[in-house]
Amino acid sequence: MSNAPHRVLLPVEILRGQMVPETIVETFSSVPVVLLGYHEVPDQTAPSQARNQFEDKAQDELDDLVTAFENAGGDVTKRLVFTHDAMKTFERLAVEHTCDSVLLLNPAPVLEDALVPIRGDVNVEHIARLVGSVVAGTDIEITLLHVASDDDDGRAVGEGLLEEATATLEETGVHRSRVTQSVVVDDDPLEVILEAADDHDLVVLGETQPSVRELIFGDASEIVAEQAVCPVLVVRRRYLEANGENGSNTEARVDGQ
Amino acid sequence: MSEEPPPDTRTVTEEATKHEEGTELERTIGLTGGLTIGIGTMIGAGIFVFPGLAAGEAGPAAMVSFAIGAVIALLVAVPTAELATAMPRSGGGYFFISRGMGAAFGAIVGISLWLGLVFASAFYLVGFGEYAVAVFLEMGIDIGNRALFVAGLGVIGAVGLTAMSMGGTENTATLQNAIVSLLLVILSIFLLYGILDSVGIFGRETVPEAFAPEGYFPVLTTAALVFTSYLGFAQVATVAGEITDPGRNLPIAMVGSVVIVGIFYVLTIFVATSALGTGELEQAGETAIVEVTREFFGLPGAVAILIAGLLATVSSANASILSASRALYATSRDALVPPQASRVNLKYGTPHIALALVGGPVIVLVATGQTELLAEVASFLHLVMYGLICVALLVIRREDPDWYDPSFVTPGYPFVPVIGALSSFGLIAFMDRLSQAIGIVVMVGAAVWYFYYARDVSLRGGVTDV
């Protein structure tokens, strides 16, 4: 496992009044953040056309955010992009800055506990280390959640995964007493995660491999991000392959040539 | 003043344009998207509107007319591609000419390009009206005054498209990709069957007739008429600033789209004239291709082509309206027209004034219902620009400014741009007198505007201010 610092891409829809909650600024000042101000324009409009008109205002808004992060002691890099396709922009910058996660904003009046759903097929250690880095210097409580499909083997495997995650968290300095482990048996993991997300202030979620079901109904992590009312930290897929090297170049560019 | 800094403060990467002050413009149109813009703009005219008209004028030799058009378009597309890779910026032809030859030429070309695209959009929408009327006729609904209905339905189409592009935030590019793919599939089936049929595989008699029943002069006038079928590659250049890996994708998209549609056009005329004969085609007019398909596949074929015709004419009109708005933006960025013209509406994110300045005149022109006149004026204004693009390449290459570093170099230089310029200007001579007169009036109007409004504008980042 490489010890490269975890880096978070934080897209902010600038010019549309999207706010970065203060709680997020405080919490995420513990990891390097790439602050991406973006403005999505429709196909009818040249991005340079929007830039001509809105650049100054956008730069000002972004600079205010940068100042907020710097005042909280954060390491922040800023980017401002006018784009037709925000997803492509996120992907490009995440690759360019080797960000292993993307924080999707939602209001967060308080940030006291985080939900971390853990699936069986991912690199548990990577997620746990990322969570550990983010919550360093805070009192945030962590709920590890695994949804098992059956009561026998599934539950046992789940408990093993969550124990592994707890141990890794401890290594990063998060005391066991801050961690709650929860294995739930249910056929619909998505529903369970969404329900649990309602009681938490932040969700940390691994991006999923697109299965056939997800190609039709959408990526599970996207669904959670859309429906959750709290911020969602999505850990990028290429960092999650169970035996994956940190920074392997497969899937580096989804939209690339 | 909303002028941009000269090119050297900008870094163009494969995926974005980075400005010195840290602002980036994402490039989001890939090779497929570029080809789609080119093909989508062109195919509505050449296949769904012109075959009947062209065959009526030139007989089976109309395929030579289309081939001449393709050759001229290629002779211009190659120099345009070189300029576009050196200056991958919004505005296309306007941008190259203004940077190569100065603000006066730039203003005239920019305004002519805007109005040329307005004429082209109106032409496509009259075609749309023809197809919509044909649909009514096919359903057995009797309409009284055909010309009135064509114009009326065209106007409805124009109003709808303008309103949609002003208020719409939907991803129109995805829709356009799907439409163009569907069209290419339908046309490939039609042509494959038609060619096999024409060479006698299915044993049906081909209509025998002289290749050029009217002689060879009409072949040239027809080439001038149908050149509107080749305007799309320049529209690729108007979005050059948004294309990924511009050094590679721009030349392929421009040259590729001309080659693809050129082949489709020539084969379509071959199949159409083999199946029906020019008399019948001429009588069927703008929707002749429907009758050809009916000959092969009966009613289902006719219905499929009617739907394809509606889609193709609308997608061509839509692409041209968006390009016209880009052309206005590029001229207003350089202060050649008032900056208000390209203001972006924050709520919808669209340049609503520019779109109104395109949609308004389109609606008026569609109401005239003059297919051939609209087509020729559109071609006139584009051909002038094409000729000047070739001249701009010659000027820029001779001046060889530091910033000029194209990643695609025109083969056969200087012959290709010289022949491209001569043939572009030459083709204008074969147009109808009235079309030439209107084209000249538009250009004189643009020149008057320049001297009245923009005489003291100096452009940054061109060879003329070095």
TrEMBL record, chain A:
<dbReference type="InterPro" id="IPR006015">
    <property type="entry name" value="Universal_stress_UspA"/>
</dbReference>
<protein>
    <submittedName>
        <fullName>Universal stress protein</fullName>
    </submittedName>
</protein>
<dbReference type="InterPro" id="IPR006016">
    <property type="entry name" value="UspA"/>
</dbReference>
<dbReference type="Pfam" id="PF00582">
    <property type="entry name" value="Usp"/>
</dbReference>
<feature type="domain" description="UspA">
    <location>
        <begin position="115"/>
        <end position="236"/>
    </location>
</feature>
Automatic annotation (TrEMBL), chain B:
<dbReference type="Pfam" id="PF13520">
    <property type="entry name" value="AA_permease_2"/>
</dbReference>
<feature type="region of interest" description="Disordered">
    <location>
        <begin position="1"/>
        <end position="24"/>
    </location>
</feature>
<feature type="transmembrane region" description="Helical">
    <location>
        <begin position="178"/>
        <end position="196"/>
    </location>
</feature>
<keyword id="KW-1003">Cell membrane</keyword>
<feature type="transmembrane region" description="Helical">
    <location>
        <begin position="102"/>
        <end position="127"/>
    </location>
</feature>
<feature type="transmembrane region" description="Helical">
    <location>
        <begin position="353"/>
        <end position="371"/>
    </location>
</feature>
<dbReference type="GO" id="GO:0005886">
    <property type="term" value="C:plasma membrane"/>
</dbReference>
<dbReference type="InterPro" id="IPR050367">
    <property type="entry name" value="APC_superfamily"/>
</dbReference>
<keyword id="KW-1133">Transmembrane helix</keyword>
<dbReference type="InterPro" id="IPR002293">
    <property type="entry name" value="AA/rel_permease1"/>
</dbReference>
<feature type="transmembrane region" description="Helical">
    <location>
        <begin position="28"/>
        <end position="50"/>
    </location>
</feature>
<protein>
    <submittedName>
        <fullName>APC family permease</fullName>
    </submittedName>
</protein>
<feature type="compositionally biased region" description="Basic and acidic residues">
    <location>
        <begin position="11"/>
        <end position="24"/>
    </location>
</feature>
<feature type="transmembrane region" description="Helical">
    <location>
        <begin position="434"/>
        <end position="453"/>
    </location>
</feature>
<feature type="transmembrane region" description="Helical">
    <location>
        <begin position="62"/>
        <end position="81"/>
    </location>
</feature>
<dbReference type="InterPro" id="IPR004840">
    <property type="entry name" value="Amino_acid_permease_CS"/>
</dbReference>
<keyword id="KW-0812">Transmembrane</keyword>
<dbReference type="GO" id="GO:0006865">
    <property type="term" value="P:amino acid transport"/>
</dbReference>
<feature type="transmembrane region" description="Helical">
    <location>
        <begin position="377"/>
        <end position="396"/>
    </location>
</feature>
<feature type="transmembrane region" description="Helical">
    <location>
        <begin position="408"/>
        <end position="428"/>
    </location>
</feature>
<keyword id="KW-0472">Membrane</keyword>
<dbReference type="GO" id="GO:0022857">
    <property type="term" value="F:transmembrane transporter activity"/>
</dbReference>
